[in-house]
Amino acid sequence: MNTLFPPFEPDPSEPKRNRFRAVPLRMLIPNFITLLSICSGITAIRLAVEGKLKFAVIAIAIAAALDGLDGRVARLLKGTSRFGAELDSLADFINFGCAPALILYFWTLKDVGSTGTPGWIAALLFAVAMALRLARFNAALEDPTRPDWQKDYFVGMPAPAGAMTCLLPLYAVLAGMPKWPMFAQTVLCYTIVIAFLAVSTIPTFSFKRLGHFVPRENVMPVFVGFVFLVALFVAYPFETLIALTVGYLGLIPFSIRRFKAQSQLDAALK
What we know:
Blueprint: H1 25-49, H2 53-77, H3 82-107, H4 117-141, E1 153-155, H5 159-166, H6 168-174, H7 183-199, E2 203-205, H8 219-235, H9 237-269
Antiparallel strand pairs: 1-2
């Protein structure tokens, strides 16, 4: 056996091969932002359990802001990757599926029924609806037959918008609105409606391709409007969230009408 497999010493001058290629830092930065958003979403759940609802809402808002930032940073740094896309989907399910559902449950849905089971079912429906919505979104990205103009729309309500929208009753209470009889039951029905909008085929505005180019004459008004919005959010956070949420819901009929008009125009041109 010694003649068949003689022992040998490795050549010390031979360069060692790297087992894995080094990953550029620009590929990691977007993933760091996504991980921060996951931390913010999970922290929101803890704050809700502790009854610190104001801070839980702020944590969800931070997670939503980070979710909008990581993709833009990845495209800016040319750091997009399959790993980053999968991590982002997981973060969306935690931050915008599980966290809002648990916040609503610990806040008021647990008061529906003697055991809180109807409220828990509504929370489960919302979380599952967000999981299904995200899976459908990922599958649609690989559709090569999708017209370019449809990229201006989401199919159903996107996960971040669904999370911020379903918390509208909580914003109202934190802003000082008193609860009415059957309040918890009303929140349950509202949560189920938002879950339905998430998994529906209703087109909603994407806004992703807005803001790439701003006309020069509109730069200063954009700056002023942004500062004004931030000032409103700092001074009246929950009132501002109510206005933004109601405004977003009010845009849905217009998105449906515009989508139908563009669909008819696209069909006529073919």
